[in-house]
Amino acid sequence: MHKLADDLHQKLFNEEDARACKDIDGSACREVPGNFFRIIVSQGLTKIGDAVSNPKIVLPALLTAVGAPLALIGLLVPIREAGSLVPQLGIAGYVRQFAVRKWAWVAGSVIQGACILAMAIAALLLTGQVAGWSIVGLLVVFSLARGLCSVASKDVLGKTIPKPQRGRLNGWSSSLAGAVTIAAGVGLFSVSAQQHVWVYCALLAFGAVLWWIAAAVYSQVDEYEGATEGGANALTHAISKLRLLVDDRRLRHFVITRSLLLCSALSAPYYVLLASQHSQALAITTASFVAISGIASLLSAPFWGLFADRSSRQVMIMAAVVTALLGLVVVSISHWYPALFASQWVLPGVYFVLTIAHEGVRLGRKTYIVNMAEGNQRTDYVSVSNTLIGFMLLFMGGVTAWLSQWGLMVVIAVLSALGLLGALMARALPEVER
């Protein structure tokens, strides 16, 4: 099995790239081929799980099907995203105590699977407000576990995979997830306009199993011991790391840029809402958008990953520009040719392009921050960045909710403007792949 991984790895990378291990430990370099595929498979499985429990598409449909209050649906994206980001300073201080950090990722993946399965059970046994609050409460725990995985994964990636291969690893794992997500979307077409709860619950149960399999695969990653400084007084050490935003100009610039690039994630629910306003069957809209997101990831992730290994900064710029221009096109259509939205292909096509752009934003910023730092500095960079982004996500989510009283197009226009500003900020970032 080890020889198969070595041979396949050699075919995927030229000899120069395969031996470019100057930024990781020499003993870890020998394990790169096996670790590369273990991480791809485990990340791909969790990405599929994320797709079949999507808080922008699947969970809102599930809450609607169980008769949960509409207000709870608006909490899903902020809780899932900010809930995993805001606590990461404290989580990073805890993770720093361990010389081998893959077990933190394994534990987080097991917990996420358990929460998703519990959501399915709650939806089958409960209804209305009780079901809605139960699912939201489980989503809080899920998000905390997701934050644990986020901190640990980037550190393990930096210790086990050479810099010239990290972008492609992320890209191929997303592409793998995209392929299976297409199948999930096709399966959802069997749901009638009445939206059978058991179909959504089956999706969640499938996702739970994937997280547990991913945990088993990731536990086999050969990770060598790393530094544990700062683990004794985890919380105090974590809070002190906020000083990085003052002292480290490059990190500060990246955090500001990443905040502006939230436009791609924040605009997605508004495009889905726009589509639902022009659709007679919510279930069909749900199925369409799940399949579309899978197709977009399958096709675009390998390209973004390869591009990110050459310049993750350029990936962020290009993806931000696409997001911004797409929003401006939609606003223009709404103003001059609103009848186009009634077409069966316009809004699905818009969401397809948006998903491609968001994939670029996500892969670009993930690759950039891993390549920007080394050792324990990487854990500090990730935790500080993610914590601040969590707060920004809550703030910007509140602002967009406030703006929505003037209509969807106002929100999309403002987010497009932020995307253009984010592209300009990314343009001023230094290259980190050289």
Characteristics:
mainly alpha, 0% strand, MFS, MFS transporter, MFS_trans_sf, transmembrane helix
Explain what this protein looks like in three dimensions.
With 434 residues, this protein is an all-alpha fold. It has helices at 2-12, 15-18, 26-29, 32-52, 58-65, 70-73, 76-85, 88-95, 102-125, 128-160, 166-188, 197-218, 234-240, 244-247, 249-260, 263-277, 282-336, 346-372, 376-403, 408-427. α9 (102-125) runs antiparallel to α10 (128-160), α11 packs antiparallel against α18 and α16 crosses α17. The longest helix has 55 residues, at 282-336. Mean pLDDT is 79; it is low at 230-234.
Write the layout of secondary structure elements.
Layout: H1 2-12, H2 15-18, H3 26-29, H4 32-52, H5 58-65, H6 70-73, H7 76-85, H8 88-95, H9 102-125, H10 128-160, H11 166-188, H12 197-218, H13 234-240, H14 244-247, H15 249-260, H16 263-277, H17 282-336, H18 346-372, H19 376-403, H20 408-427
Give the structure's gist in a few sentences.
With 434 residues, the protein is mostly helical. It contains 20 helices and no strands.
